[in-house]
Amino acid sequence: MKLANSTIAILLLALTIEVGLIADDFSQQHRQVDLASVSSLALTPAQPPVKEVEEVEVLPPPPPTPIIPIADTEIAEVVEIEEAKPSSPKPRGSGPLALSAQAWLAVFIPPAGDPQVLASHNASQSLAIASLTKLITAIVSNKEIDSGVALSLDGDLKTLGGDQGSAPTNIPGAQMVRAGDLVYPLLVESNNNAASALASVMPEGEFVVQMNLMAQDLGLLNTGFYNPHGLDSEGAVPPNYSTAENLVRLAEIIVSDYPELLAVTKNKAYSIQAIDGTTVRQFKNTNKLIDATDWPATVLGGKTGHTDLAKRNLLLILRDQGSGGLLITVVLGADDHFATTTDFLDWIYYHHDFS
Q1: Which H/E stretch holds residue 234?
Q2: How many beta carbons lie within 10 A of that of residue 333, not counting itself?
Q3: If pLDDT is split at 50, 70 and 90, which confidence band does 62 have?
Q4: Which of 66, 142, 169, 182 is 20 to 30 Å from 115 at the Cα level?
Q5: How far apart are CA 164 and CA 190, in angstroms?
Q6: What count of other Cβ atoms lies within 10 Å of the Cβ of residue 88?
Q7: Around Cβ 3, how many Cβ atoms within 10 Å?
Q8: How is residue 221 annotated by DSSP?
Q9: Looking at residue 172, what DSSP letter applies?
Q10: How confident is the prediction for the chain on average, in pLDDT?
């Protein structure tokens, strides 16, 4: 029994020792793990706390814009647009009619039908007409004076020039010319010497009386004359006068009844000879529009006039090329009768088609 107890005691002791050894071994292993953890913490730097990242939906990029090739012709058009050109000028006569004159009138007379008034301003107002007077002077001379009558151009006549403001004619004194030849300087150069020479055939003042009677016979009821040339009179004597309406009527009569006088006004220049055969000199037309070709019409003739009182006047007679009709224009009291008539005809042919 004692032996058994001793054996048990020995076993218990051995068991105690084994348990202690096991505990020591576990403690040693645990200490090694802690040292490793400490060593690891010492060598690794501290990291900041990581925030939780929200998941964001990433959209795909938009597809690229397709590049469309441009043809060469299209490039040329773009360049032309970028290089802006100045705008084209307005067609002549396209604007409103605004003439620099005291009165004007345009009448178209078709081959068949009634006359048509195209434009007018103060057409019935009596105004000084200056050398438009010479149209009646020529008619009276044509009817009342023998074309072969010899006339002396003496020194007194040399003091008169053509339209006021032009140079003296310098016709040599005592040179004899035929009355029929004087109609050329009278109507071409608007020569005042020629008008006075023709009037000298009759007693003083009688020629002017005949001029006024002729105006009445022709129906020019608002027309009056005080001298044969149209120069401004001195003192209280009024100037020769008429209206645009009367002058258009006079132009119609010249075309129909005195075509030879109309033909004289068409001459650009003309030389006359004295009875002894010597050349007096060349007379140049005062009408700068006599050969104008700016419109579809042919200038048949006309007459200029200019004095300080009357300013500048122009009667122009044309034949429309498309219709064959007659076109008559009158401007009175203009600053520039040629420019004003040009503007007038530009306006007429822009706004009217006679064909």
Answers
A1: none
A2: 22
A3: low
A4: 142
A5: 10
A6: 6
A7: 7
A8: T
A9: P
A10: 81
Helices 134-144, 206-217: axis angle to 10 degrees equals 100
Structure tokens at 278: 């010597």
What angle (nearest 5°) sits at the alpha carbon of residue 266, between those of residues 265 and 272? 70
Closest CA to 299 of 282, 323, 283, 315: 315
In this structure, are residues 272 and 177 in contact, taking their beta carbons and an 8 Å threshold? yes
**What are residue 351's phi and psi, to 5 degrees?**
-100, -10
List, for residues 122-147, the tens digit of each pLDDT value.
999 999 999 999 999 999 999 999 99
**Residue whose pair of structure tokens reads 């203009």 in the numeric block:** 334
Q: Between vectors from CA 211 to CA 208 and to CA 213, what angle results, nearest 5°? A: 115
Beta-carbon-side half-sphere exposure of residue 278 (alpha carbons within 13 Å): 7
Amino acid at 339: A
Amino acid at 159: T
Give me 155's structure tokens. Answer: 């020194």
Q: Residue written as tokens 């003042």? A: 205
